[in-house]
Amino acid sequence: MDFLAPIQHSIHSLDLVLRTNHSIPEIPHLLNRTVLVGGKRLRPALCFLMGQALGVSAERMYPFARAAEFTHSASLAHDDVVDSAVMRRHYKTINAESSNKKAVLAGDLLLARVMVELSEQGDVEIIHDLSLVVEDLVNGEWLQMDLRGQINTTSDKLIEVSKRKTASLMSWCCKVAARVSSYEESRSELMKHAAAFGENLGIAFQMMDDVIDFQSMGEKDYAKDIKEGLVNYVMSDLLARKPQLQKPVSDILGKSDTQVWPWTEDDLFTSVENVRQHATQFLMAAKENLSQIKQIAQPKDGPSLQSFTSLEGLVDYMTMRQN
Ligand code: FPP
Ligand code: MG
């Protein structure tokens, strides 16, 4: 991913270890060997790229990048409990490593740490916005839970879940960069377009996640959403096109040991392409947001221009990513 080159150093030097502070040592230790290990670091990358595009130093963006990844990790601690997951990123999940009760509490502690560290930045609006994001994450997860077991999930319902569960935090990452930028007069316009960019990118990201869910027929991870009872974007498209599949898919929905699938590779291919097309529409909107930001920001120096190119590269990468 060459487009990440301008911020590679910032990503590498981002310290995502949770110190003991005044907490019982067991809790940071548990987090540091589970939800805080690995991951794509996409949210910090968005903070640093949008920051650099708008002339904000990596040093200034650092606490926000850390807050974004910590918030994401806290949500994963809770998500693994909700999903009764046992593996994440090739390691045992936090709940499997400890217990559901301890995983929930550890997620709470991580979220509290985000609030402590963000409040040290002294900008109430930023904390206010992130608190709204946490509300969105909870509502998104809740809505998704209610969609489990439902065969007639529509793409509109899935978009609502994606906006809240996935796109809201990505949107915050971009918006916060505009918030701390030194564009006094055009700041609110920039914040609006940066937030919209992050949201469009996040929705497309979730759609492509659902495409990836159907990538490895014959492997353990194939159709994980169906096994967990969820009709995702690809399956929703397939069922709308082929209603005769509703009964056989209903029969396997939520069954984790399924190995024989009622659809053909050809059926699936068309739906995968339809979802890829749908994601492309959101990515085109994200590109439009970027050009509006560029028009307002009028970047002149090398690093800013390079970061705009990187953000465009990130948009293009979305439909090609494999994990
Ligand atoms: C991963 O979803 C989960 C999320 C992106 C958000 C989950 C949000 C909550 C559990 C609400 C609580 C939030 C906080 C901040 C405490 P997934 O199951 O589709 O993806 P996965 O395959 O990575 O598990
Ligand atoms: Mg999960």
Describe this structure in words.
The protein has 323 residues and is mostly helical. The chain has a single domain (2-320), classed as Farnesyl Diphosphate Synthase (Orthogonal Bundle). It contains 14 helices and 2 strands. The protein has helices at residues 8-12, 26-32, 42-53, 58-82, 94-97, 100-119, 124-147, 155-179, 187-212, 224-227, 233-241, 246-252, 265-297, 302-318, and strands at 87-88, 91-92. The longest helix is centred in the last third of the chain and has 33 residues, at 265-297. It is globular and about 55 Å long. Bound molecules: farnesyl diphosphate (FPP) and magnesium ion.
What is this structure, in a nutshell?
With about 325 residues, the protein is mainly alpha-helical. It is built from 14 helices and 2 strands; from the N terminus they run H-H-H-H-E-E-H-H-H-H-H-H-H-H-H-H.
- Based on CA atoms alone, the radius of gyration comes out at 20 Å
Largest sheet: 2 strands, antiparallel
Distance between the first and last residues' Cα: 13 Å
| Count of discrete structural domains | 1
| Average predicted confidence as pLDDT | 96
Number of E-type strands: 2
Strand content: under 5%
Shape: globular
Element-by-element helix/strand order:
HHHHEEHHHHHHHHHH
List the helices and strands and how they pair.
Layout: H1 8-12, H2 26-32, H3 42-53, H4 58-82, E1 87-88, E2 91-92, H5 94-97, H6 100-119, H7 124-147, H8 155-179, H9 187-212, H10 224-227, H11 233-241, H12 246-252, H13 265-297, H14 302-318
Antiparallel strand pairs: 1-2
Helix pairs in contact: 2-6, 3-4, 3-8, 3-14, 4-6, 4-8, 7-8, 8-9, 9-13, 11-13, 13-14
Bound molecules: farnesyl diphosphate (FPP) and magnesium ion.
Magnesium ion (MG) is lined by residues 79, 83, 85.
